[in-house]
Structures are given as C-alpha cells and as structure tokens.
Amino acid sequence: MPLHVLNHPLGTHVLTHLRDKTTKPALFRTLSYQIALLLSLEATRDLATEEKKIETPMEPMTGRVLARPLVIVPILRAGLGMVQPFQDIYPDVSIGYVGLERDHTTAIARSYYCKLPPLDGRRTIVVDPMLATGGSAAQAIDVVKAAGAREIVFVCIVAAPEGVATLSQAHPEVPIHAGVLDRQLNAKKYIMPGLGDFGDRLYGT
Ligand SMILES: O=P(O)(O)OC[C@H]1O[C@H](OP(=O)(O)OP(=O)(O)O)[C@H](O)[C@@H]1O
Ligand SMILES: O=c1cc[nH]c(=O)[nH]1
Ligand SMILES: [Mg+2]
Fold it and tell me: Where does the Phosphoribosyltransferase domain lie (predicted)?
C-alpha cells in the first residue's frame, strides 16, 4: 500500500514548531492536536457513506452520512497525543489501547497493555506519532488483526524510511499516512532530523 505524506502548508508550519527543541509541552500538545487533525482528514477520505433521507427547511432530500463507526487505537503512550481530534470531529468513535515501549538499548518494543473494543466491520485507525524502526507499529497491527480488525490504516506524524519499509513488508495492505518522511534513523534508532522523543516532549518527562 502506498505511503501518503501530508501536503499542506499548515502541516509544514506545525511540524517545524513541533521539531523546534525550544517548544514547551503545552504548545507541543496543541501542535500535536493540529497535525493529528489534518492527518485524520487524510486517513478518512475514503470512508464509506450511506444514503439518509432528511428534510431541509426548504424540501425533502437524500443526503449521505458515515456508514460505520471508527475505532482509534493509540499506541501508548505517545499515541494518546493524536486521539483528541478524532473524538472531536467524528460522530461515532471507539477507542482501543495498545501499550508498547521500546527498550532503550535494543529498540525492540515490549507489550505492557491491551484493551480493544470490537473491531470487526469497522475502520481501525492505529495512531502513533513516530514510525522509527517500524517495530511498534507492526506489532500493534498484529494485535488489532488478531482481535478481528480487517480495514486498518496507520497514521503517524514523522516517518523514517526504515519504518515505512518494515511496516509495508509486515502489513502490505495497510495504508500509511505520515505528516512527513524524514531522512533516516541514527545509531540509537531515533529519527533524523526528527523531533526527539515524542512521549517525553508531550508529557514533560
Ligand atoms: O518504530 P519504533 O522503532 O518501534 O519506534 C517508535 C515508537 O517509539 C516511541 O515510543 P516509546 O517506546 O518511546 O514509548 P512512549 O510512547 O511511552 O514514549 C514512539 O511513540 C513509537 O511507539
Ligand atoms: O525519533 C524517535 C524514535 C522513536 N520514538 C520517538 O519518540 N522518537
Ligand atoms: Mg518514548
């Protein structure tokens, strides 16, 4: 499945401020909300709609409404910073949680929590701001597939080429929506130029 990279001047603006190391957690949270809102629109462009008969104040008509509820699955903890815009603008959203944490030396993600609503028949949007090695995203998508998800989309803010390659190989049918595609990983598997540790910056840790 193709990688879709956000192409919007507001997205570029927000990303630059997110990357800036002088940006403090309060502004960082606002910027995360803004970029996740733009990405949420991209990741749902092809959602199914169905007919609905209504009456405007002028006459009856047939409109269209979203056909099925959405499920958002943030990868804890940093993914939580991307959930709010989905809750604010989509009418029928359930939230599931997958807790993963990368080991500081091996960069391999360890699972510590999982709580998912029913996923069958719903679009499942897995969100995590950083797609670095791709290990966390691939593991989270294994988990939602095992729980019954069939229509899955992955959304991140910053992607590394290495993560895109790993995720596309593990789950070739899952579209990836990214705010930006960065250059590479460094020796410690952090994204370059990136924005540092998203979770630490979001939560001031
Ligand atoms: O693509 P990967 O190499 O797996 O790296 C990406 C993961 O690393 C970060 O989480 P981290 O493990 O730091 O946990 P946190 O969200 O609790 O900070 C990030 O939020 C992703 O989940
Ligand atoms: O650059 C990176 C890589 C993984 N996780 C982060 O928060 N940042
Ligand atoms: Mg972290």
Answer: 5-205
